UniProtKB/TrEMBL annotation:
Membrane spanning residue stretches: none
Species per Swiss-Prot/TrEMBL record: Pipistrellus nathusii (Nathusius' pipistrelle)
Upper classification of the organism: Eukaryota, Metazoa, Chordata, Craniata, Vertebrata
Name this protein carries in UniProt: IQ motif containing F5
Length: 145
């Protein structure tokens, strides 16, 4: 081979190498674009799964919190109801004790014509005092007008 042929072969080799390198560079860039797209798609799917798991966890956690709050409220109301019942029993016995030691006043009244009739019964333990009283009412007669 002569010098011009060797130069042509060298130029052709350089050109083919340039074309191969360009093709390889384009293939590498295309592969890089595809990989980026794939990784972004995978990350999006992973994020969607994470959000779904977080929503499900939040719903379950919220349900558990509501259930716990309901049970606590029910227990507090039950305890309050028991304490209220105990207080009522204590009040009942205390009132009964006071009535036995202090006494009870019972009575009724009626008004007939121009007179107030009062009937009282006062109990002090075992002692009973009955009072019957009639009091005239200062009502003007229709004839006085």
């Amino acid at each position: 081979m002569g010098r011009p042929e060797a130069a042509a072969v060298a130029i052709q080799a350089w050109w083919r190498g340039t074309l191969v390198r360009r093709t390889l560079l384009l293939a590498a860039l295309s592969a890089c674009v595809i990989q980026r797209w794939w990784r972004r798609a995978q990350a999006g799917r992973l994020a969607a799964r994470r959000w779904a798991a977080l929503r499900e966890h939040t719903l379950r956690e919220g349900a558990a919190v509501r259930l716990q709050a309901w049970v606590r409220m029910w227990r507090v109301r039950l305890r309050y109801s028991r304490l209220l019942h105990a207080a009522r029993i204590i009040q009942l016995y205390w009132r009964w004790h006071n009535c036995q030691t202090r006494g009870v006043i019972q009575g009724n009244y009626d008004i007939k014509e121009n007179q107030l009739n009062l009937h009282l019964e006062i109990s002090l333990g075992s002692q009973v005092c009955k009072i019957h009283q009639s009091t005239p009412l200062p009502i003007k007669q229709t004839q006085d007008l």
